[in-house]
Amino acid sequence: MEVCAKMRNETIRPTRTTYNLILEACASEGMLLQARATLEDMMAGGLAPDNDSFYHVLQAARYMSSSVMWEVLELMAKHEVPWDQRTYEFVILRYAEDSVELALRYLAEMGEKQLSPTLKTMEGVINAACKLHLPRLALDLAEAFEESSVRRLDTQVWVDLLIACATDLWKEGVLRTWRKVVKELNITPDEGCCLLVLTTAARHGLSSLGLDVLQILKSMHVVWEEYHIAPILEAFCRDGNVQHAFEMLSLMRANDILPTTETTQPLFELLCSIPGAIDEAWTILDELNKQGKIVDVAALNVIIQTAIAVGDLQMALGVYKAAGDLRVRPNLETFNLLLAGCIASEQRQLGDRLLTEMKEMHIKPDPRTYERLIMLCLTQVTYEDAFFYLEEMKSTGIMPPLSVYEAIVLRCIRTGDPRSQLAFEEMRECGYIPSLELQRTLNAGAGGLAQAPRSGAPQSSEGKEENGWAEDIDVEQSRARTPRPRQVVL
């Protein structure tokens, strides 16, 4: 500005180039008032502004509202200055974030005028579409641009497209962008992007894509975890490939990764849906063992879980007994699954035998084990041991869950056992709120439980300790009184 003032004092008339340089300086600092004054001075001097002049004024107004932008554009129209690529770039990028429809409208208008959008314009619209969860639109724009232009989008744009497609679990988009990013551009996505792609692979059964991602992770020296391999297992399950799904479990064990029940859930669902799948699964595990591969106990458990789910407890027990043939040692989950089968078939004696074998293997019961033991006892005519296991559970420092208390209360109510009062009071002391089923039972005829004071709890004629449970129960005698279940050969 000082130079301009000096030029004015020396009666040196600025040229259009001089004015445009001044406007560019104003634009860089966002000085809209100074830019307008310069433009007016330019026109007053008889110089018609060109595209560069108005572009700099638009840039100076970039922090202003859209109405200011349109005032400048109307001034352009008044001076019959047509929009060029940079003008469209400014307008499109202004609307891309908040109104992508308007941005697309002006993008289409450029095509009608045979104007090619700038790289900055296309990348801005594509990124905006990705942020708005419109991966199909973004990918179509990117591919159409590169097909019609010798220019190429920045590699980060393609990575963003891959992330957007994977975030929306769009199968076709992930396949196309993965091929572009990894195969053509030789870009290695980061672990976060790989996890998104794995999720898509799991959802759509893209097992080959999942294996590609696993190799990319390996090339980055990322230590494999359960959440890296589990999606590939799920992808194989969606493909109906039982053998490769079991091989994923072996791969996890070979890499010191512990599969969980959630890991094998897709495999369990697949086995339940295929007739004769249990025999096929056992054959696969036998083959893996013969090949010298590690058979994970999770693979054994999922077969047991499937057998129990289809009501074949005999098959589940057979698989459990044959674990040694596969060099597999049953774990706590194995016994918990078998106890669930005992509950379904009301096999109390079998449950006792499993508990004995569990203790012989030095496997410590967990809350689920105690819960299932109690539930198993409640299936019998004589259910005294349910109270024994409840006390044992509490003695180990485990708080019984609401389901245990409710099962005991409901059973006692239905048999007229006065200990329902004690169980209900203890449940309330633990802070549990009765479920809808229990509330209905109480409202139907045992509502006194909800209101009766603890001091009025009935006592059994056999005598009880202050905790309310009969602690003098002879467990072995109570088991002897239990009706003999049908025999199951172990």
UniProtKB/TrEMBL annotation:
The keyword Disulfide bond does not apply. Binds to mitochondrial small subunit 15S rRNA. It comes from the Eukaryota. This is Pentatricopeptide repeat-containing protein-mitochondrial domain-containing protein. PANTHER family: OS03G0856100 PROTEIN, PENTACOTRIPEPTIDE-REPEAT REGION OF PRORP DOMAIN-CONTAINING PROTEIN. PROSITE patterns: PPR. Residues 447-490 are annotated as: Disordered. Keywords: Repeat. Belongs to the CCM1 family. The lineage of its organism: Eukaryota, Fungi, Dikarya, Basidiomycota, Agaricomycotina. PPR repeats lie at residues 15-49, 225-259, 331-365, 366-400. Regulates mitochondrial small subunit maturation by controlling 15S rRNA 5'-end processing. Localizes to the 5' precursor of the 15S rRNA in a position that is subsequently occupied by mS47 in the mature yeast mtSSU. Uses structure and sequence-specific RNA recognition, binding to a single-stranded region of the precursor and specifically recognizing bases -6 to -1. The exchange of Ccm1 for mS47 is coupled to the irreversible removal of precursor rRNA that is accompanied by conformational changes of the mitoribosomal proteins uS5m and mS26. It holds the Pfam family PPR_3.
